[in-house]
Each structure stands twice: as structure tokens, then as C-alpha cells.
Amino acid sequence: MLTTARLGSLAPGQLQQARDRFDLGRLVRAEPATTGNFGQNAFLDTDRGRYVLRGNPLLPGQFAKEAYFARVFHDHCQLPAPWPYCYEPSTELFGWPYVIMGRLDGRQVADEQVYAALTATERAELAHALGQATTMISAVHGETAGRWEPETGAVVPFQPSWADWVRDTTLEVLGRARAISTEDRAWVVGVLDATADTLARPFEPALLHGDYSRQNVTAAPIDGRRALLVVGPDPVPRLARPVSRRGAGVVIMSAANPDRQFADLVVASKLLDDAT
After folding, report:
1. Residue ranges with strand state E in the chain
2. What is the value of pTM for the model shown?
3. What pLDDT score does 273 carry?
């Protein structure tokens, strides 16, 4: 019996049926993942390979969105991606939709014991790998800035425009911020006003990760150096260029941004992240 906080107790027969649904072999071993979304993940080994079960989605459409961007990663990004990514929307087997995806080698650096055991050199190599991964992700481009919407199952352009969405979303986040002074609020609004022309400049939208940090990566030594294997499991939610780790709407529009404007956008993003 496999038991996790979010998935509950799952019988071996259920797990085998899930494998059979995608012809992934005979179940050999099942165990909870030590990291991930609140017990949402479990490791499954079969006689054909190693996989990850993801179940009981946190939000409606979570796995459908992940499936969409897992395909984008697999087809267009140089970063290794969990593959296959098998999505079952039916709730008949477990009572909720589920995913079975390929499990990559490496260790979860979100695990504090794993991270604490890294040497200073390994941590520097990990930081370097994160930078390289950012470059690989943003090398994937789209035709229009937008985000995936469950109603269409595709990336839908921001309305009425990217610049308007940036301003409206930033002001909405600003309105919800509690730990922020009146002066800081005025300063953020001033940054938006000062960068209005920059935000309106044409740009080539790039893929981005909405929760990019060491909490969401797997890493392993390659040729004696610690290299990033995958960013995930949560895939990329939109085509844009954000500075904010939450995608609050403060963005880099192009490499041609004036240095001062860029610096202000970064600071404003950090301010909003810390205040909400």
C-alpha cells in the first residue's frame, strides 16, 4: 500500500491499473517522493523503467497545462524533460486525474539534507547550471505573448495587450499587498508610468518558468561537475519575459531596455514578491 499526505492510500492493484493504462510495464516498487507538492508525487518503478506518479491536482487544469508544456519542453527545449508524460483526465481509478511521467536521474536539491551536503564548489556549479537552464528555456520562442488557458487548451494572447496586462496585474498585486508602505506603493506606480514606453515595445516572446528556483530542479554530477537535469515538475505557464518569480507582471521587454529602467523593474518585482 502506497500512502502520501495528498494522495491518500493507494492499493498495488490501482497502481498497476494506472501502469496498464499506458502500457508501462509491471509494477516492481512504489514509494512516496520526499519532495514535491504536498505529497502529490510518488515514485513508481516497473520492469520497463522508472516513473513518477502525480495525482490529486492542486488546481483545475493543472495536469492538462503540464502536459501541454511537457510536450513543448520535449520537442523544442535543450533541457531534458520528463518523458513520456502520460495524462489521464478520468477520475474513475483514483477519484482524481493523474499523470505518470518519466523519472530523470539526479537528486532533488530542494531536499535540505541534499543541499547541505554540497560543497561550495558544487553550489557554485549548481548556480551556473541554473543560469544555463534559464538561457535554454528562453531560447524557445512563440508568436505572441500569452498564457495557457484551460478553456482552449492553448496559449492565449494577453488582452487587450501585453503592456496593459502587465500594468493591470501589477496594480492588482499591489492592491493585495499588506506589508508595503504608502511611499513604496507610489514608487511602484511611478516605475510603471516611467516604463510605459518600454513595456509597449515589440519583442519576441520567450518561454519562461513561473516558479524557477532550486526548489524545482533535479541535479546530478556529469563529467565531474554538477549539472542541471530538469526544471520542473511544474512546467512553464506563459510566453513572456518576467523578472518576478511569481510572474506578477513586472517584465523585461527586450535586451535593449535602459539599465536604470531594468533595475527599477527588478526592484519593484522583488518588493511585490516580499509584500504578498
Report:
1. 2-4, 8-10, 27-32, 41-46, 49-55, 85-88, 98-102, 107-108, 146-149, 154-157, 206-208, 217-222, 225-231, 238-240
2. 0.76
3. 52
